[in-house]
Amino acid sequence: xxxxxxxxxxxxxxxxxxxxxxxxxxxxxxxxxxxxxxxxxxxxxxxxxxxxxxxxxxxxxxxxxxxxxxxxxxxxxxxxxxxxxxxxxxxxxxxxxxxxxxxxxxxxxxxxxxxxxxxxxxxxxxxxxxxxxxxxxxxxxxxxxxxxxxxxxxxxxxxxxxxxxxxxxxxxxxxxxxxxxxxxxxxxxxxxxxxxxxxx
Length: 200
Description:
By secondary structure, the chain is α/β, with parallel strands linked by helices. It has two domains: 2-80, Translation Initiation Factor IF3 (2-Layer Sandwich); 84-199, DsrEFH-like (Hypothetical Protein Ychn, Chain: A, 3-Layer(aba) Sandwich). It has six helices and nine strands. The chain has helices spanning 15-26, 39-51, 105-118, 146-154, 163-168, 183-192, and strands at residues 2-7, 29-36, 55-61, 64-70, 91-95, 126-131, 158-162, 179-181, 195-199. The strands form two sheets. A five-stranded parallel β-sheet has the order 8-7-6-5-9. It has a four-stranded mixed β-sheet with strand order 1-2-4-3, with helices on one face. A hairpin with a 2-residue loop joins strand 3 (55-61) and strand 4. The termini are far apart.
């Protein structure tokens, strides 16, 4: 078992998580310290290590976050793998805008609100909801659909919110619902889904 330090400062999403995964996939790691320089990367790397079976703690020094993952022994890591057979059908909905359709902006806002409110009618087949690009604005303070998204998350729907997009719109601190995520998590979720519905 070994201890390693991985310097991911200056790397854009999702590279910190990808590089972390490359090291953990090699195995034989007792402790891994990942250095990152933004809150989104810190949260993404922390969540990845937790899913890979590590106990995680975060230390901050100036603009640098040290995400430290430790494991006492060769404990199981299979918790990171989600099993498609757990549900007969998994539907993933990807929303890439804060409006539905093109044309009138006010109408588009009303339509997306109605769409979010009606999503629960999919029942248990609705497995994951991904918000990216302007879609992340639906998950922040002041969003008219925030209550609906909270209701979906509390009912068991996995809600992923793009960290790069939140950073772009300077909304990272305003996020109120969902997991701040990265492109690796998004692509993995799309692979695990039985059906993907995309709205942009």
